[in-house]
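Collaborator request, handled under Task 6.
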Amino acid sequence: MEKKLDIININEYKPLRDIVFETLKDAILKGKLEPKERLMEIQLADQLGVSRTPVREAIRKLELEGLVIMEPRKGAYVSDISYEDIIDTLEVREALETYAVKLAIEKNEAEKIEELESLNNEFKKAFEENDIQRMVYLDTTIHNNILALSGNKKLISFMDALNEIMQRFRLIYFNESYNPESIIVEHFEVFKAIKAGDKIGAVKAMENHLSSLKDDIKKVYKKD
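Structure tokens returned to the collaborator:
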């Protein structure tokens, strides 16, 4: 196994098994450990500078969260992200985020759009520098901030439940099939409609943005 992880810093206030679990989970969500990649206890323990026991415990916990698959005679490997999982997630995301922009307008949060525009400009800079990790982070932050404008804690909580799946396929999307120029424009169209208090326009702009994402995902998975 190629060395992808660094030796962990031991936090005396947190059990080692929890630190190892969080480290491996973060590596999966950020794409350092890729879908279908074998997880070898010995190699992972060597990379992290720990014994095999906390690694074994972490892998079992990751299996419970659906991030790892364990099969007899094959061992453990990072779970794949199916096309169906992504499309289902995008459909739920569309329902939540279109509702979020309507609530943002009702709560008159237009004055906070400047912060989103600033993040979108940072996204443009990250694209120009070909910084994929930064682009993923900024895109996630922009959409989370739009949800925050809704002021609806339940809505935000539901979206949090989707974030792990979204984080993983964002990496696939930004690495394999994306059009940053379109994303930047689409973000600004959403901001513009919220600023104007245009509910119909805001919903349409968000639908258009997420529809474009869905189309690009279909290209990645070569689906009709």
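The cover message to the collaborator said: "The two ends are 35 Å apart (CA to CA). The domain at 83-220 is CATH 1.20.120.530 (Four Helix Bundle (Hemerythrin (Met), subunit A)). Please let us know whether this matches your experimental observations."
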